[in-house]
Amino acid sequence: MKGDIGVIGLAVMGQNLILNMNDHGYKVVAHNRTAEKVDEFLQGPAKGTDIVGAYSLQELVDKLESPRKIMLMVRAGDVVDSFIDKLVPLLDKGDIIIDGGNTNFPDTNRRVAALKEKGIHFIGSGVSGGEEGARFGPSIMPGGSPEAWPFVKPIFQAISAKTENNEPCCDWVGNDGAGHFVKMVHNGIEYGDMQLITEAYQFMKDGLGMTHDEMQSVFIEWNKTELNSYLVEITSDILGYKDTDGEPLVEKILDTAGQKGTGKWTGINALDMGIPLTLITESVFARCLSSLKDQRVEAEELFGKKKSIVEGDKQVWIEALRQALLASKIISYAQGFMLMREASNENGWDLNYGNVALMWRGGCIIRSAFLSNIRDAYDIDPELSFLGSDSYFKGILENSTSAWRKVAAKSMEVGIPMPSMTSALTFLDGYTTARLPANLLQAQRDYFGAHTYERVDKPKGEFFHTNWTGKGGDVSSTTYNS
Q: Where does the record place the catalytic residues (predicted)?
């Protein structure tokens, strides 16, 4: 009996996905560049299962049913291209290659087009949930060659996480790089969520002077509210974890955050498409700032910065902080969906935003209770341009604004950095302001560069230039929208 699917790459994610597939009755053929890794897997975690090994790509191909389905769980970039180049001569027309890594979506666009010319189908699929998700049910976001989806759908939907209504957290996203784009935005929102939580933690620790046990209790309680989410849940676990000496382990961890690039890609794409992804971009910059540890230590001493305590009723502040965190989190998702909408329009992907919310409802790192509300919002209005305009989210934002402003103002007053939470509030203020000061900005651009401007009393699309000093000319620069 031949295998249903082959998986290349036996690092932790690859191994766990294979075991998950095996649990659901699929015969998997496992391959790794180093034969020792295959033997270790077969004699270790895969022992006693129906999983079989392949010690060469030819053996892998020979052991699979047609059309062959081969999933790459390897490092994104050149490694993926290398495996594709080696596999193509061994495959037949109609066979399917799947990239399950964190690939930048333009690479997936390129691979879909190149393989189509050879008659090979390609799927670029985001997989979220970490080790546990891969083993017991991840969120899976496939895109690429639509002809390949019917052959992969039963496997992917079987192994994916399920909602409380037993809906699979996996569905077809769209053509070309749509799946990897949605995964990229997922990771960007993940950056934002994590940064917002750390800002709340610092406000409680440095501003309110709370102990780790007190903070753990707060996050446990918050997880029973609209903030219910995987990241809030694990934060309570982390704050309660003690080192061998009985002290909180989290305070012994160096405060320099790493990143693998997906948050940066999200920010770059937002800039390219002109979408104000302010919160997520600030979260990326916050990680960059954290890496300047030695400089920050010197600067704190140079400026003589002192910590100021936040005065007032601690419970009142904790509730205000909860509301500020919730409102900011909504803005993070709203901005992410704005970016996906622009990308969908630009690339002709026809994304189903309700389905995206469903795919994120379970298994993935940003899974949270209000993703069900996001799905409902897009079911009601598939053309919803701003998530905050939906009645449910609009109500939360309006009810939270006073507490949100209170927290943001106090953080500025006492010197606690909250870049993502304050940028989210500033974004909402800007988005809900009918007339911004960009009229003065356009006048400045026209003054020094003759870049022209439009007038409120003339038809849109008609451009004007003014000789502001009487010394300049009347010739304008090339007209363009910035």
A: 183 (proton acceptor), 190 (proton donor)
* Sequential DSSP letters for 51-111: -EEESSHHHHHHTBPSSPEEEE-S-SSHHHHHHHHHHGGG--TT-EEEE-S---HHHHHHH
- Show the DSSP H helices in 360-390 as ranges: 371-380
173 is in an annotated binding site: no
Catalytic residue among 190, 264, 282, 410: 190
Q: Which residues make Cβ contacts (< 8 Å) with residue 165, sequence separation at least 6?
A: none
Gap between the Cα atoms of 192 and 205, Å rounded: 20
Is 191 flagged in the annotation as binding?
yes
Cα 88 off chain centre by: 31
Residue 33 assigned to a binding site: yes
Quick check: is 190 catalytic? Answer: yes
CA distances 409 to 414, 422, 433, Å, are: 9, 9, 20
The domains located in the chain, with CATH, are: 5-172 (3.40.50.720), 183-432 (1.10.1040.10), 436-481 (1.20.5.320)
Quote the CA–CA distance of 334 and 325 in Å, as a whole number: 14
Q: For residue 450, which amino acid is it?
A: A
* Backbone phi and psi for residue 368, each to the nearest 5 degrees, phi listed first: -155, 160
Q: Is 38 annotated as a binding residue?
A: no
CA distance 226 to 368: 9
Cβ–Cβ under 8 Å, residues 357 and 374? yes
As given in the structure block, the two tokens for residue 325 are: 């965190």
Is 9 annotated for ligand binding?
Answer: yes
From the list 63, 69, 183, 264, the catalytic residue is 183
pLDDT digits (tens, 9 = 90+) for 7-26: 999 999 999 999 999 999 99
The span from the CA of 480 to the CA of 463, in Å, is 10
State pLDDT tens for residues 243-297: 999 999 999 999 998 776 778 899 999 999 999 999 999 999 999 999 999 999 9
| Beta sheet of 5-8, edge-to-edge order | 52-54, 28-31, 5-8, 69-72, 96-99, 121-128, 139-144, 174-175
Peptide bond into 67 cis (omega under 30): yes
Q: 408, 425 in Cβ contact below 8 A?
A: yes
| Residue 442 pLDDT > 90 | yes
Residue 290 corresponds to which tokens in the numbers above?
A: 């954290």
